[in-house]
Structures are given as structure tokens and as C-alpha cells.
Specification:
The structure holds two protein chains of two kinds. By secondary structure, chain A is mainly α. Helices cover 85% and strands 0% of the residues of chain A. Chain A has a single domain, classed as Orthogonal Bundle (MetI-like fold). Chain A starts with a helix and ends in a 7-residue tail after the last helix. Chain B starts with a strand and ends with a helix. Helices cover 40% and strands 24% of the residues of chain B. In chain B, α6 links the parallel β7 and β8. Chain B is built from nine helices and ten strands.
């Protein structure tokens, strides 16, 4: 089914590309060969490097802050009560709209890009982790207590493993948002990065050239999702085959 | 001395009173069942003894000490098993030992005889979702026994099992308890189960929750559940308890009639 659908999309793509002509949509093999040229000339890596860097730092910080923060607000009720509304408001605000302000405040530099990627990552991680903690089976917490468990042991044995599936979902969404955030940061803060490469090509109406990096981004997103799904299955064998 | 002394115990949830002034003494190595309809507070009573529920008034004295928190000399078996889904059978059985400070290897080796005792040898590496309900509760029972408690607290442990598995588990418990006697408080709403297992059955009624009768079960040990059920004394005990439990819906029926419904 999946392969059938992929083949159908590809066929449709070729049909449109061949009937409308290369200005609107280039056939996939042309895009791929242009991408190959771009990589061979070193242009691709030159633009990928900075984006990979802000992505690694921003998303890394987002996860490193988001998971512990989510665990805390999920477990400590007054903290959840205080932070719930601000987090939801922040999450529903289109972060894109905040990018210009961030650039003015932090400056047109890579630090502001890191902040943007961080913000895109951290919110879904926090929200999913906290909701995972809150849905941990309270009966199991009580079971641990009945055997005289201390609070930190309850965390280690029940709360963290119990919220692991939700944490992994948070990471999956967070990292995909991070990819989007990194490219958007390049769009706005300009002059370097993968997103800027897309803009460069687009401004020259070179759709074939612009679609190459877009392909790579889509593939990276799919890879992240698949990788985390596998990790989730490895880390939680108790859920059985799903 | 592993006895339990419950003195003038009251429990209210907000304005809702569960029971008032309950008094109950359970002797060292005595097997006592608490039998009653749902809502009489029998589970709440047990949870208070286990230290996982607060009291409103009165006290629980376990082994001579006033007790309000979970204690290392008691262990609780739950109706809904409560196994950690992310741990294997052996690690679930070893879990109580782990919480009481044993290392992983030590806890596993101490748990092994209890895995055998409940008949789960060969299933050590399975996860709970791979077990039937009866097997899951064997794990729950082994987990409680593994910490070698002086007092075993059991909250309708076989209530979620089908009838046949239930009787099998009763036989198992009889066998295990005969080999290693300890004080047991066993909450149930099954008359048969209470008679088969206990030295004494404490019958409760609801609205308000209270103890109405203590009925000794005069069968010798070791017991054979099947032979017991065929004994005329069993039938008499059963009828006696049934009459006590039945008073309740009847009397509330009569109040309805008296008020003209």
C-alpha cells in the first residue's frame, strides 16, 4: 500500500512536470541531478554546515530543558497550575510571528537562530512530557509507596518509565519542529544556512535548484520520525507489538 | 508479635462518613477475612492498616507501634495486581526487595524461590502483558511474600479473576500459608472464599460501615477446600454469614416502605 501510494505520487509528479514544463515543476530526476552538482561543487555543504550547527545546539538545548521541565510541571501540581495557561498561549502563538522581534532583540546572528530553534523544539517536548507524567497510572505510584518507596525512587521506577512513550512523542514532534524552525531562521536572519540557499534559488526563479534542499529537508524529517519510532519500540518492549 | 490492633477508627471523605469507631484485633499468625458488601469500608480499613490512607480519628497499632505510614513488616496485595508493565516477572517479584534496599542481583536471587512458589518458574523473563490475569496476580502475591512480611494485607486479591482461577488461587494460598504462617488480613466479598481461607471471618455492614459479627471457622489445618465445601458445617457457616449480609438490602427496603414509597 505504502509503496503503491509513493509510486502514484511520483507518477503524478512526472505527469505535471512534463505537461506544464520545467519552470513550474521539474521532474524528480532533474532535481536530484542538480542536487548532485550542488554537493559536488561544495556549495551544498557550505550552506548546510551553519544550519546543522544551529539545529544541533538549539534542538539539543530544547530537549535538555524541555524534558526535565515537563517532568517537573507534570508531577508538581501547583507548578502545572501556574504554567499551563502561559505554555498553551505560547504554543498556539505562531512562533514565526515572533521571529522579527527576536532578531531585533538578540541580533542578526547565529545566536538568535539558536534561540528560534530552541523555542520551536522546547514547547512540544514540554507539553508532551508533562501530559505523559500526568497520565502515569496513579495505582502504580501507590504500589511503590506501599513498599515504603521514597519520592526519588517513585520517579525512577514509575514516573519516568511510565511517561517514556509520551516523552518520545514529544521528541519526535519537537525535532521536526526544530527542522522547520532552523529553515525559517535562515529565511529571516539570512546570509547563511540551508534556508538561505532555498531563498537564493527561489529569487532566481530556479525552482529545480530550490527543490533539492527541500527534498533533503523532507527526507531528514522522515528519517528523524522513523528513528525515534524505532527507539521508542526498543525502549518500551512492554507495550508489545503495535 | 505481628498483631494488629484497630482502636476506635473512623474515616470520613469530606462530609461522607465511611465508618466510625471500628475496633478490631488480629492475632499473631491469625488469618482473618473481612467480609462485607461493597461500600462498607472494608477496603478503606485495609488501606489504613497498610498506611496508604489517612485516618480521621482513632488509631492503628501494628506490632505494638502506632502506625500511619507504610511499614517494612507489612505487604499489600492489590485487587488490580499493579505490576510494573516495564519490568519482567522476576523483576516485578523482586520489586519490593529493591525498594527495601537490596541490589538488583541480590533482589533477583531472593525473589527466585517465590517465583517458583507461585508456579511461575520458566516465565521469569516475560512481561506482564504476556501473562493471564491469574498469572499476573501470582506475581503480585509473590512480590508481597518476597519481602517476608510479618503481616500480609490482601485487598480482594482474587476478585478480578474468573471463578475457576479464583478457586485455584485459594488452594495455592492455603498451601503457601500452611507452609509459612503469618498474620493475614484478607478483604473479600465472597462468603465461600472467606470460610475456606480464614480462622475467623469479620462480617461488616454498610451505611454506616460497621463490624456486626466475628465468626470463627472451626476447620482444622491443613485444609482441603473441596472437602470443606462438602462438609455440613460449611453450609451452616455459609447460611449464617449470608443471613448477616442479607439483612442490609432488606432493611433498607423496609425503610423505603415505611416512608411510603
Amino acid at each position: 500500500m505504502r509503496f503503491g501510494f509513493a509510486a502514484f505520487v511520483l507518477a503524478l509528479w512526472y505527469f505535471i512536470a512534463l505537461t506544464l514544463g520545467g519552470l513550474f515543476l521539474a521532474p524528480p530526476h532533474v532535481i536530484v541531478s542538480r542536487l548532485g552538482q550542488s554537493i559536488a561543487s561544495g556549495e551544498f555543504m557550505q550552506y548546510l554546515g551553519p544550519t546543522a550547527f544551529i539545529l544541533a545546539v538549539g534542538a539539543g538545548l530544547g530537549v535538555a530543558v524541555g524534558v526535565p521541565f515537563g517532568l517537573l510541571i507534570g508531577r508538581i501540581r501547583p507548578l502545572y497550575w501556574v504554567t499551563e495557561a502561559p505554555i498553551n498561549i505560547f504554543y498556539t502563538t505562531p512562533l514565526v510571528a515572533l521571529i522579527p522581534f527576536l532578531l531585533v532583540i538578540v541580533g542578526f546572528n547565529y545566536q538568535s537562530k539558536i534561540v528560534i530553534v530552541f523555542l520551536f523544539t522546547v514547547l512540544p517536548v514540554v507539553i508532551n512530557t508533562a501530559s505523559g507524567v500526568r497520565t502515569v497510572d496513579h495505582d502504580l505510584v501507590e504500589l511503590s509507596r506501599s513498599f515504603c518507596a521514597k519520592e526519588w525512587t517513585v520517579w525512577r521506577d514509575v514516573i519516568v518509565p511510565g511517561s517514556l512513550p509520551a516523552i518520545m512523542t514529544g521528541l519526535r514532534i519537537g525535532l521536526i519542529h526544530a527542522l522547520v524552525g532552523a529553515v525559517l531562521a535562515d529565511f529571516y536572519a539570512g546570509a547563511s544556512g540551508f534556508g538561505y540557499l532555498i531563498i537564493l534559488y527561489s529569487n532566481r526563479f530556479d525552482i529545480t535548484g530550490a527543490l533539492g534542499p527541500v527534498f533533503v529537508l523532507a527526507a531528514a524529517g522522515a528519517a528523524v520520525a522513523a528513528l525515534l519510532k524505532t527507539a521508542q519500540r526498543r525502549l518500551s518492549p512492554w507495550q508489545g507489538e503495535q | 508479635m505481628a498483631n494488629v490492633d484497630i482502636k476506635d477508627l473512623s474515616k470520613h471523605f469530606g462530609s461522607l462518613g465511611v465508618f466510625d469507631d471500628i475496633n478490631l484485633h488480629v492475632d499473631d499468625n491469625e488469618f482473618v477475612s473481612i467480609l462485607g458488601p461493597s461500600g462498607c469500608g472494608k477496603t478503606t480499613l485495609l488501606r489504613i492498616v497498610a498506611g496508604i490512607e489517612d485516618t480521621t480519628a482513632g488509631s492503628v497499632i501494628v506490632a505494638g507501634e502506632e502506625s500511619r505510614k507504610p511499614r517494612p513488616d507489612t505487604a499489600l496485595v492489590f485487587q488490580n495486581f499493579r505490576l510494573l508493565p516495564w519490568r519482567t516477572v522476576e523483576d516485578n517479584v523482586a520489586y519490593g526487595l529493591r525498594l527495601r534496599g537490596r541490589s538488583k542481583a541480590e533482589a533477583r536471587s531472593l525473589a527466585q524461590p517465590y517465583v517458583m512458589m507461585v508456579g511461575l518458574a520458566g516465565r521469569e523473563k516475560k512481561y506482564p502483558y504476556q501473562l493471564s490475569g491469574g498469572m499476573q496476580q501470582r506475581v503480585g502475591l509473590a512480590r508481597a511474600l518476597a519481602v517476608q512480611p510479618d503481616i500480609l494485607l490482601m485487598d480482594e486479591p482474587f476478585g478480578a479473576l474468573d471463578a475457576q482461577t479464583r478457586e485455584l488461587m485459594q488452594d495455592e494460598l492455603l498451601r503457601i500459608w500452611s507452609a509459612d504462617r503469618k498474620t493475614v488480613m484478607f478483604v473479600t466479598h465472597s462468603i465461600d472464599e472467606a470460610i475456606v481461607l480464614s480462622d475467623r471471618v469479620v462480617v461488616m455492614q454498610s451505611d454506616p460501615g460497621r463490624i456486626v459479627e466475628h465468626i470463627p471457622v472451626p476447620f482444622d489445618r491443613p485444609r482441603d477446600a473441596a472437602a470443606m465445601r462438602a462438609d455440613p458445617r460449611f453450609t451452616t457457616l455459609r447460611a449464617e454469614m449470608w443471613a448477616l449480609l442479607r439483612q442490609e438490602p432488606l432493611s433498607s427496603d423496609m425503610t423505603h416502605r415505611a416512608t411510603g414509597e
